[in-house]
Specification:
The protein is an alpha+beta fold. The protein has 2 domains: 26-241, 3-Layer(aba) Sandwich (D-Maltodextrin-Binding Protein, domain 2), CATH 3.40.190.10; 285-512, Roll (Dipeptide-binding Protein, domain 3). It is built from 16 helices and 19 strands. The strands form 5 sheets. Strands 11, 12, 13, 14, 15, 16 and 17 form a 7-stranded mixed β-sheet that branches. Helix 9 (312-320) packs antiparallel against helix 11 (362-371). It is globular and about 70 Å long.
Length: 540
């Protein structure tokens, strides 16, 4: 099927080539005085730092959403989560397994290099490399080849309905820039593997990295040579990681920041009461769950000869010991949506049959533990992040206390993502708090192929706890090559139901999403993917 080219006006182009070793400087753009005077600055107070400037360094929605201001994919989601052309102006399927993409002419990287098919091929090779943390975002990729400078073909390993969805988060890098800076292989922030792309960037997007001080401030400036017609009036974005919720709120109320995409739930009423602040609140696509170590032995426990969590009775006991209504009311301020499913209702693959939760039953939990041979419980490592999910520290503390009342002894390990993520990647945990939004696919195949599937090739990249099962793997593999949604979606739903019946995870809630902004922000787009899009934002 041929997709017509988007009618996109080209932005005015300014010739510039200067790139410093550590950052791109505004003076290198030749940005006109008039543009600098007319453009606005937005100060973005984020709840945490991004993992890296390398868009392939970690498959995390937040980091990728920030980097989408610098890098772009062949296609992108609109604010209404519809797929539209981006670096590719059109595409067609030339066979059931081959897609042909026509690149947009005249696109330049931030260092002035033109975008060509060679850049796309080099990027696809990098992101699908066996060491890439993001390879699971292209689970069906087989190969690619150049037709001409502006045309390429991507081959998938079978009929596959979600390639365009996947490509929204596969950002394109400059081949020449990668080769010149020994950056042709991906870095891995989860494993502490760094490289030139960790602290330097060269995309095609609406903003350019001017400077970066990790854990302090990253500054983006408008790209005057962006191929698209800017719908923003922003000359400068100051990205400020402010991990303290109280400090973030105070900064917003005082005008030190203009926007936060993580407004603390406990402060929404206070923020809404300010005439200078507007709050946007809804539930996002992300579902929060607890995931358990199902390997042969626990990581940290007084039970050393086996893993109690491999017993379904023990997993059910942990589930029944949680009073989710109390968690929802207290830790989540009544704003989360409790659920028994591991995907949100808007995600294809969800069914109403997945929704019911096991009831809170403390006595039943104790009996299940006793029946499994643990009348006095056991100790285990409980890994949570202090700067990850919304109110994660609070709900983890609440659940740890509930498990303790059932006779269990959770050793709650709280820390920032920078210390907790490497432990998770290495499997150094027994239970973790975990959130999955099924992006960029916006389809249950995302969590199925990346989290539930046994590790093989690009499958199971996030399967840190040995959650794979042959029956689930078979359903996932069938769904991955089924083009008929009437057949594909029931396959995914069945796989999710097996995970539910086996209590492979303990579902908690759909995460609340609260943005807050000062009156300096005239308008912005809040989509359920929780990704700020400042290229669609106007400032006063």
């Amino acid at each position: 099927m041929k997709v017509p080219a988007a009618n996109v006006e080209k932005a005015a182009r300014t010739n510039w080539l200067a790139m410093g070793a550590a950052a791109l400087m505004l003076s290198g753009f030749g940005v006109t005085t008039a543009m600098a005077q007319q453009g606005k600055t937005v100060k973005w107070g984020a709840a945490r730092e991004i993992a890296s400037l390398d868009p392939y360094s970690f498959g995390e929605t937040f980091t990728l959403s920030v980097l989408n201001h610098v890098y772009e994919g062949l296609v992108r989601y609109t604010g209404e989560l519809k797929i539209e052309p981006a670096l590719a102006e059109s595409w067609e399927t030339v066979s059931p397994t081959v897609w042909r993409f026509k690149l947009r002419p005249g696109v330049k990287f931030h260092n002035g290099n033109p975008l060509t098919a060679d850049d796309v091929l080099a990027s696809l090779a990098r992101v699908t490399h066996e060491t890439s943390p993001l390879k699971g975002n292209l689970p069906a990729y087989k190969s690619s080849r150049k037709i001409d400078d502006l045309t390429l073909e991507i081959e998938v390993n079978g009929p596959y309905p979600l390639l365009l969805n996947d490509l929204t988060n596969i950002y394109i890098l400059d081949k020449e820039w990668m080769e010149a800076n020994n950056a042709s292989l991906p870095t891995d922030s989860g494993k502490g593997i760094k490289g030139f792309a960790t602290d330097n960037a060269n995309g095609t997007g609406p903003f350019v990295v001017e400077s970066r001080r990790t854990d302090s401030r990253t500054v983006f400036v408008a790209n005057p040579s962006w191929w698209d017609k800017p719908r923003h009036n922003i000359a400068r974005i100051e990205f400020l990681p402010i991990t303290s919720a109280a400090t973030r709120v105070a900064a917003l109320l005082s005008g030190e920041i203009d926007f936060t995409n993580v407004a603390p739930l406990q402060d929404l009423q206070r923020l809404s009461a300010s005439p200078e602040v507007k709050v946007l609140q809804t539930n996002e696509l992300r579902t929060v769950i607890f995931a358990m170590n199902l390997k042969d032995k626990l990581f940290e426990s007084d039970v050393t000869d086996k893993n109690p969590l491999k017993d379904i009775r023990v997993r059910e006991a942990l589930y029944r010991a949680i009073d989710v209504d109390s968690v929802q009311r207290r830790a989540m301020r009544g704003l989360s949506r409790s659920t028994g499913a591991i995907v949100a209702p808007a995600i294809p693959g969800y069914t109403a049959a997945q929704e019911p939760r096991l009831p809170f039953d403390l006595d039943g939990a104790k009996k299940l533990l006793a029946d499994a041979g643990y009348p006095n419980g056991f100790s285990f490592n409980f890994n949570c992040q202090s700067d990850g999910l919304v109110n994660e520290e609070e709900f983890c503390q609440a659940v740890a206390a509930m498990w303790a009342r059932a006779g269990l002894r959770p050793n709650l390990s709280l820390g920032p993502r920078s210390t907790q993520t490497p432990k998770r990647v290495k499997g150094e945990f027994d239970v973790i708090s975990f959130g999955w939004a099924n992006e960029p696919m916006i389809d249950a195949y995302s969590i199925l192929v990346q989290v539930l599937r046994s590790r093989s090739g690009s499958g199971g990249v996030f399967n840190w706890g040995n959650w794979g099962r042959p029956d689930i793997d078979a359903l996932i593999d069938k769904a991955g090559v089924e083009l008929d949604n009437a057949k594909r979606i029931p396959l995914m739903s069945e796989a999710l139901m097996i995970a539910k019946r086996e209590h492979l995870f303990i579902p908690m809630h759909n995460q609340p999403m609260a943005w807050a902004m000062r009156s300096t922000v005239a308008n912005t787009v809040q989509a359920s993917d929780n990704k700020p899009r400042f290229w669609l934002t106007q400032m006063r």
